[in-house]
Write a structure and sequence with these properties.
Blueprint (H helix, E strand, L loop, with lengths): L7 E7 L6 H9 L6 E7 L6 H6 L6 E5 L6 H11 L4 E4 L5 E2 L3 H12 L3 E9 L5 E6 L4 E3 L12 E3 L26 E12 L16
Parallel strand pairs: 1-2, 1-4, 2-3, 6-10
Antiparallel strand pairs: 4-9, 5-10, 6-7, 6-9, 8-10
Length: 211
């Protein structure tokens, strides 16, 4: 681990994600950027999600277990409160990341002096492979007009932010409430994530060759 690299805290809420979370975790642990912590918040799953998570013997993973189901927003906020990193990222339990996602996004944010960034993503087909339907991130976007930001591509630079004010909320304007109205989100053109599949298909190392 390069300790000169800023720590990235990654928050992953999950409820009954046993059939997909292992591949999501693999996509995080396979990052080319090494200095991160993965905070998994189990929202009182009733399947064997925790058994799957416990198979990963990795010091980067921190698991928070909820005694009752409170929903994805509250689970995410619980993870945010536990985050220690200079950067904060999110990934849903059925999404996947490109291996260079963290490294490229931190470099992008540093170059653009961005407090908030997001990236392009591609939808998955029923087999978990990219189906060619890409949502391309614009160079920047007004929070009030946000229609394209995918949570699993978002990264925040926590420097200068009031950590107590950084929290997830419901609705299209959930990100806007974290910043002044003049702030903008900066988008990366590159595809950094596969959006949403729930089939147990071990393809995370291969799919990026097809995007």
């Amino acid at each position: 681990m390069n300790k000169s690299e800023p720590l990235v805290s990654i928050v992953m809420p999950v409820f009954n994600g046993a059939n997909c979370i292992d591949e999501t975790i693999h996509s995080v642990l396979g990052q080319t950027y090494d200095n991160f912590e993965l905070i998994i918040v189990d929202d009182a799953s009733t399947d064997n999600t925790l058994d799957v998570v416990d198979q990963f013997k990795n010091d980067k993973i921190k698991v928070i277990r909820s005694k009752r189901n409170c929903g994805a927003v509250r689970a995410t906020n619980r993870g945010i409160r536990a985050a220690r990193g200079e950067y904060l990222a999110f990934i849903d339990a059925n999404d996947r990341w490109q291996p260079g996602k963290l490294k490229q996004q931190i470099e992008f944010m540093s170059e653009n002096k961005a407090a908030f960034s997001f990236a392009s993503y591609v939808f998955a087909d029923k087999n978990g492979r990219p189906n060619g339907r890409v949502v391309r991130a614009p160079a920047s976007i007004d929070f009030a007009k946000n229609k394209v930001i995918m949570t699993s591509t978002v990264m925040l630079n926590m420097n200068g932010l009031n950590r107590s004010g950084v929290k997830m909320e419901q609705g299209d304007k959930k990100w806007q409430r974290m910043f002044d109205e003049t702030e903008r989100a900066y988008g990366m053109h590159e595809v950094m994530a596969i959006r949403g599949y729930d089939l147990k298909v071990p393809i995370w190392k291969k799919v990026w060759r097809r995007v």
